[in-house]
Amino acid sequence: MREIREEDIGAVAEGAAVLGAGGGGSPYQSALVLRRLMRQGARVRVVDASEPASDEVGPILAGMGAPTVGIERLPTAGRFGHLVEAVGRALGRPAGFIAIGEIGGGNAISPLIGSAESGLPVVDADPMGRAFPELQMNTYMIAGLRPQPLLLEDAKGVTALLEHLPDARTAERYARALTWAMGGGAGLVLAAVNADQVRHLAIPGTLSLAEAIGRAMERARRRHAPTSEGVAEAVAGTRHLFYGKVVDVERRTAAGFARGTIRIEGLGSRRGQELRIDFQNEYLIARTGDRMEDVLLAVPDLLVLLEEESGRALGSEAVRYGLRVDVLGLPAAWEMKTEAALAVVGPKAFGYDVDFRPLPGDLLGRAAVPA
Amino acid sequence: MREIREEDIGAVAEGAAVLGAGGGGSPYQSALVLRRLMRQGARVRVVDASEPASDEVGPILAGMGAPTVGIERLPTAGRFGHLVEAVGRALGRPAGFIAIGEIGGGNAISPLIGSAESGLPVVDADPMGRAFPELQMNTYMIAGLRPQPLLLEDAKGVTALLEHLPDARTAERYARALTWAMGGGAGLVLAAVNADQVRHLAIPGTLSLAEAIGRAMERARRRHAPTSEGVAEAVAGTRHLFYGKVVDVERRTAAGFARGTIRIEGLGSRRGQELRIDFQNEYLIARTGDRMEDVLLAVPDLLVLLEEESGRALGSEAVRYGLRVDVLGLPAAWEMKTEAALAVVGPKAFGYDVDFRPLPGDLLGRAAVPA
To answer: Facing residues of A243 across strands?
Structure first.
């Protein structure tokens, strides 16, 4: 058991922005809400994935919506605390812990807000090791967990409890439609999980990883080095893929997602080349041309755009003409690279007729991949 | 207390199709489900609006969705019974009666299915005296009742419980989006009402009126008279507006509604004239030209299209080229013609810059309009 304190929030947010791989919403606005709660005395306790007692259950918390919406709305204080109470009522017993739904972007902070508001500890683990745009794209759902109960809460406190959902794809469709009607953003309980499910299905240590990445980026800044050095320090498998200037962003918010394509003109050693990145909230694929061998990286590996001046990771909603960016690739956690996972989060699941050629290694630097 | 028996269903359905004014979904398919339940021993008891005990509450039941969807799906047996149970769980106490959400079309039958499945009596009253396309368009919501709790159930048994909705228009937006994601049709509990609310806000006797209209149409058929005579017998204020042939139907299912325009070429004494009817699920306005005085009838008064050959009322989803139709106008119940009601269900609420010029009289033939 440890605690996240006010002075840790900045590092968690900065690292979560990296793990967002373009999505998950801005962590900086959520961080403001969390800071305010902590100044009012709220505390956020963190436990390891092995710590919840075997009879405990907890809600998987996240925010839902296109990040283009998120940048216009501060998360409503109280929403995640309400959701924790509502899941307890739906289950007929109070929750014992908070599970993170997605460690990328603002969704790393939402469960901490839920923890601060409910007093329940948050588990240092998540089911993606990054952000992904759809509800079926996480280790819980890939393993067949049903989204039960699913809860949404809008900015005005309207709650929706969905039950008897047959599968995560139906949950995705229904929750997406409702979130869109709610104005584009909502607080989400994806399901309730028990201690065993967290221990065996989630990727352990990803909240600590977010903080470690943020700390390493802070250290790099202090020594006037690029923040990409910090990222590489915290994630051993990091590759520098490209450096250049954003020359075009084609953007459309369609069917509840921010979709589009970014074109980056190479600078320095990349002069004369162009990188094209498609996104659906998250960055999906980076290509220098149309041939198979031109694919530099594809999901589930992480594409990270670090803006040169601030050194911060850019969400897809914040990319704009003229920004200079370093494009990094980070290897996904091994849990996202199993055959079952690739069927849900690999390039083909996003409509790309491209084989997944993984970066070597594991997001968390774990040596062996369990059978 | 009386009972609706298997041999009454046909008349209720036929009359409900008239009161549907083009919407509410086909009652004939729902009638099949109800007949099957009755053959299995289920009973439907009917009570007057004054009969529920003052401490009882009941769900307002209806189906939600575009009628174009309804014609492709039989209502799922069990859905309305589930909804009655679910509303009891949400309220913390069992329902004591079933309230009809909309007496027009299939929505007249859905509450009877809910009654057959739950064993609870259905109240002979509804909050429209017809069908209307949106959730705020009924006397309960016009009087300020909150849609609490709102429940939806899809064809696969997925339930959604929406709480803390601030108003009926928000309920409409959220429920419409979700129903659309659910495949276009869902069972709905619009709210729970208590006995006082049913007694003071609903329009009494409309289930009996549907049956009376159906019986009078049956009698007209037996004497080889047009069914329009039967309708006029049951509803004293009925006007014959037009007779002709459908020559064009422009149809689009947009934003969860079946919208469009029907053109009818006059026959007989109407030869040389054309009637244009706009619909949004229900028929909204009938015009012979573009001037104010060309409006023959507008909401909330009821437009009814009786197909010549079958004598049946046509839902907007069933109108097609070549059908010969009598177009009738029925005066709305006075509850739909108050200033507060017209702000929600009058022509202007549907975007028509047209004054409401009511047909004389009251749908139920009541002499005086209470102050």
So the answer is: A326
Tokens encoding A242: 């490209």
CB B332, CB B129: distance < 8 Å: yes
Q: What is the pLDDT of residue A72?
A: 43
| Predicted TM-score (pTM) of this structure | 0.91
- Residues sharing a CB contact under 8 Å with residue A134, sequence separation 6 or more, in sequence order: A169, A172
- Asked if B255 reaches chain A (Cβ–Cβ under 8 Å), the answer is no
Q: Which residue do the tokens 């952000």 mark?
A: A131
Size of chain B, expressed as the number of residues it contains: 371
Q: Could you give the CA distance from residue B16 to residue B28 in angstroms, rounded to a whole number? A: 10
pLDDT per residue over A139-188, tens digit each? 999 999 999 999 999 988 999 999 999 999 999 999 999 999 998 889 99
pLDDT tens-digit readout, A276-332: 999 999 999 999 999 999 999 999 999 999 999 999 999 999 999 999 999 999 999
Closest CA of chain B from A349, distance in Å: 21
Percent of chain B with pLDDT over 90: 87
Instruction: Please identify every stretch of chain B with a pLDDT value under 70, giving residue numbers as ranges.
Output: 67-77, 368-371
- Contact between A130 and A210 under an 8 Å Cβ cutoff? The reply is no
A224 touches chain B (CB under 8 A): no
Token digits of residue B24 = 């509410």
Cα end-to-end span (Å), chain A: 29
pLDDT at A71: 44
- The proportion of chain A whose per-residue pLDDT surpasses 90, expressed as a percent, equals 88
CA A158 to centroid of chain Cα atoms = 25
Closest approach of A122 to chain B, Cα-based (Å): 27
With contact defined as beta carbons under 8 Å apart, do A200 and B200 qualify? no
Q: Residue B1 carries which side chain, given as an amino acid letter?
A: M
Q: Are B62 and B188 in contact (CB under 8 A)?
A: yes
Any A CB within 8 A of B352 CB: no
Residue located via tokens 């459908």? B246
Question: Shortest CB distance from B181 goes to which of A156, A173, A182?
Answer: A173
Q: Please tell me if residue A163 touches chain B, with a CB cutoff of 8 Å.
A: yes
Q: Write out chain A residues lying below 8 Å of B161, CB-based.
A: 160-163
CA distance A42 to B96: 44
**Amino acid (1-letter code) at residue B209:** L
What's the gap in Å between the CA of B160 and the closest CA on chain A? 4
| Closest partner CB to B163 (pick from A159, A162, A164) | A159
User: Which helix (H) or strand (E) segment is A12 a member of?
Assistant: helix A9-19
State mean pLDDT over A86-110: 96
Query: How many residues in total does chain A contain?
Result: 371
Range A288-297 burial, b when 16+ CB lie within 10 A, else e: beeeeeebbb
List CB contacts (< 8 A) between A181 and chain B.
Answer: 173-174, 176-178
Give, for A35, the enclosing helix (H) or strand (E).
helix A27-39
Q: Residue B303, SS3?
A: strand
Pairing of β B274-280 and β B282-287: antiparallel
* Chain B residue nearest residue A165, CA to CA: B158
Interface test with B, best of A79, A158, A172 (most B CBs within 10 A): A158
Domains, chain B, in order of start with CATH, read: 2-204 (3.40.1610.10), 237-350 (2.40.390.10)
Q: Minimal Cα–Cα distance from A149 to chain B, Å?
A: 10
Distance between B284 CA and the closest CA of chain A, angstroms: 25
Chain B residues in contact with A157 by the CB 8 A cut-off are 164
